[in-house]
Amino acid sequence: EHVVDLDTNLIVAAEIYHADQADAHTLEDSVQQAQTNVRECGSEKQLVAVVADKGYHSAAGIAALREQTPYRAYIAEPAAPHGRRWTNKPPEQQDAVYANRRRNRGEHGRKLQRWRSERVERTFAHVCETGGARRTWLWGIEKVRKRYAIAAAAHNLGLLMRKLFKMGT
């Protein structure tokens, strides 16, 4: 997974996790890493919203994001089976999920989800498919992380060269 600045399409965090970790459990770490990377680059930008697809949706994760971070969640909901009820979950989780649902259904939430699908997913596909980072022969999470970080950096470098110097592919 990686975090992309929607204004510039620059990748600000490229994280690789073990396959046994669900996306919903890695979201907060990825967002914190993105904010750290932005700060270390000398930028004064502050992340204010987390926009993610339905793979990152979990009641506990949305509640933790709400309680432990200043970010607003715009996380798409998966289709719920008919008749699903809130059982065995604290009311804080229910409140956080309902707030997330309300934000997603608003005009701003729909716009952010559209931007995510157009920019983030396209950037991810470009790095993975065109950049060759979909598969690797490397073994070990650290080696795979380094390889993916290089692919993300190459994407960013190409983007900067096109924007600044009108050259590079």
Report strand %. Answer: 5-15%
Q: What characterizes the major β-sheet?
A: 2 strands, antiparallel
Q: Mean of residue pLDDT? A: 82
Low-pLDDT ranges: none
Number of strands: 4
Put simply, the count of helices is: 5
SSE arrangement, N to C: EEHEHEHHH
What is the helix fraction of residues, given as a range?
40-55%
Helix/strand class: mainly alpha
Shape: globular
* Alpha carbon gyration radius: 17 Å
First-to-last CA distance = 23 Å
For the biggest β-sheet, the strand order reads 1-2
Could you explain how this protein is built, in words?
This protein is globular. 54% of the residues lie in helices and 9% in strands. The protein has helices at 23-40, 59-68, 91-105, 107-130, 141-165, and strands at 2-4, 11-14, 49-52, 72-75. The strands form 2 sheets. It has a two-stranded antiparallel sheet with strand order 1-2. A two-stranded parallel ribbon has the order 3-4. Helix 2 crosses helix 3 (91-105). With 169 residues, it is mainly alpha-helical. It has 5 helices and 4 strands.
